[in-house]
């Protein structure tokens, strides 16, 4: 049985916002059991925004949550770090409208969380076990979740770009696999999209230091790739963060083909609407080893 977890003490992180380009101060605080992840906009009267499917208001280029008209964007990398390290309950205070982009991956968050440590809480964490396949399709993109003895994500990407075409990876989501194989993978985008966003006053904080940028024919970052298949690893990282918005770790196999934030959220909504397709269980035996591995990373 896995107990719920929070962080052992407060963490302060400062970094640039991807869209505003401003320095954002973020303070992570321990939270009581059953709290979940709560974003608090300290610059907007301490409005609280619960990390959950019902709070999602935008999935264009990133996942954005909102409450009472107050937003917090680019939450997926931080949520992935919490989920990947089995951290369930945290207050996230922000003095701006987005989570700092850091280096474009979840690694800076993971390092601080591991350094700070996890505090166990005296209540079990329930898992959502998939009993039968659930599928969502939209044009050429599909995402599904099927029964599986553990938690696994398989992702396929395909772009008609000279720098890369198809990338595919399947990986069991354990704390060790997440921290080593997924957390370092950086976000990526096309130069044409960056130019479009900046024309709208967005992406002011984007740079080659926090994203892999693809021009017409090549990767503009040169040879500074962390993995040969860094693109698909980052897509799985995003999926870990988005899928955590269902509120419970999923015990199943998520299979995605040319998917993204929008389909991730549509899958979560369909899962919640298909109540006969899943059940609540305590921690599966196959995951008990993984939950204690963060200290070894």
Reconstruct the topology from this structure:
Elements: E1 3-7, E2 11-16, E3 23-30, E4 37-41, E5 47-50, E6 56-58, E7 64-67, E8 70-72, H1 76-84, E9 90-94, H2 107-116, E10 118-124, E11 127-130, E12 134-138, E13 141-146, E14 152-161, E15 164-172, H3 175-182, E16 188-190, H4 191-199, E17 212-214, H5 230-243, E18 250-251, E19 253-257, H6 261-273, E20 278-281
Helix pairs in contact: 1-2, 1-5, 5-6
What this model shows, in words?
With about 300 residues, this protein is α+β, with helices and mostly antiparallel strands. It has two domains: about 5-125, lpxc deacetylase, domain 1 (Ribosomal Protein S5, domain 2); about 125-295, 2-Layer Sandwich (lpxc deacetylase, domain 1). The protein is about 20% helix and about 35% strand. α1 (about 75-85) packs across α2. The chain is globular, with a radius of gyration of 18 Å.
CATH superfamily of the largest domain: lpxc deacetylase, domain 2
Biggest sheet character: 5 strands, mixed
The coarse overall form would be: globular
Number of helices: 6
Tell me the strand order in the biggest sheet: 2-3-9-4-5
| Mean of all residue-level pLDDT scores | 93
How many domains, in number, for the residues? Answer: 2
What's a concise summary of this model?
With 297 residues, the protein is of the alpha+beta class. The protein has two domains: 122 residues, 2-Layer Sandwich (Ribosomal Protein S5, domain 2); 170 residues, lpxc deacetylase, domain 1, CATH 3.30.1700.10.
